[in-house]
Amino acid sequence: MKDLKIFSGASNKPLTDEVCCLFDFPQGSVNVGTFSDGEIQIEINENVRGTDVFLIQSTCTPVNNNLMELLILIDAMKRASAERITAVIPYYGYARQDRKAAPRAPISAKLVADLLTTAGANRVLTMDLHAGQIQGFFNIPVDNLYAAPIIFKYLKDKYNNNLVIVSPDAGGVERARSMAKSLDTTIAIIDKRRLKPNEASVMNIIGEIEGKNALILDDMTDTAGTLTHGAKALMERGAKTVSACCTHPVLSGPAVKRINESPLEELIVTNTIPLSDEAQQSDKFKVLSVAELFAEAIKRINTNDSINSLFI
């Protein structure tokens, strides 16, 4: 392996620690602090000249602080003469704003891509982008890993009987179909009408779910309004049990409270975003680690090997 160093931002240090422990990667020392007015202050405590640097930082809550911290980390590494800088972003914030959904609306996902590139990132490693076309917003290499292999293994071991995979909307049908094909089962679709951002009203269930164990599959859960309304609708349509699975547990606002009070038996998530204290105290959450997948990708990027097999 080439001279490699991994640095962690403040957003997801446990994931960084796990990645480094798996392959005995050297973790760099960096101080992340703030001035009294809230400005972020970065100080790298070791030499990175000529090294292959990986910066692990999820742009989760507080989104703007974590994004700004990542940009400053990238700039600091560039000015310290790092040979290559890879921004490892397990959860890519602003991904939902990937198009002009209304007149005079911004495309914030493209803006974030421009900021990362301008700051000095040479490549990006992320997971389960909300919209695949975001890869095209960059003029640098982007590797978008999938949590599906990890999730599939857990589902195959636990949900191996009378299962139906449910897409929470029309946009997630391809994801649901792919998982259903792997598990040799059927799919259903929740037909919803979104009234305004972070609020949705379930209208209908397309597919056969009566007497089956329903599993709602999505890429992220934010306020959990869609998820809990969908779970309730599935139970009303005759589902035997309802569980859910998502890669990114954003869980903002009343999300945890809604999940605890919902008919959901289990919400399977990954550690791309660390769970809040409230969520950790709930027995409805099952966390799967993506550290091994990221560690293997980092190793292969460092040695210029193909990561094609990681997508299977």
Descriptive account of the structure:
This protein has 312 residues and is α/β, with parallel strands linked by helices. 31% of the residues lie in helices and 27% in strands. It has helices at 13-23, 63-79, 108-119, 148-158, 173-183, 225-236, 255-261, 277-280, 291-302; strands at residues 4-8, 30-34, 40-44, 52-56, 84-89, 123-127, 142-145, 163-167, 186-196, 199-206, 213-221, 241-249, 267-270, 285-288. The strands form three sheets. It has a seven-stranded mixed beta sheet, sandwiched between helices. The protein has a five-stranded parallel beta sheet with strand order 1-4-5-6-7, with helices on both faces. Strands 2-3 form a two-stranded antiparallel sheet. Strand 13 (267-270), helix 8 (277-280) and strand 14 form a beta-alpha-beta unit. Helix 1 packs across helix 9 (291-302). The longest helix is centred in the N-terminal third of the chain and has 17 residues, at 63-79. 41% of the residues are buried. The model has no long low-confidence stretch (mean pLDDT 93).
Strand order of the largest sheet: 10-9-8-11-12-13-14
| Rg | 20 Å
Q: Give the distance, in angstroms, between the N- and C-terminal Cα atoms.
A: 24 Å
> Strand pairing plus helix content: what structural class?
alpha/beta
Molecular shape: globular
- Secondary-structure element series: EHEEEHEHEEHEHEEEHEHEHEH
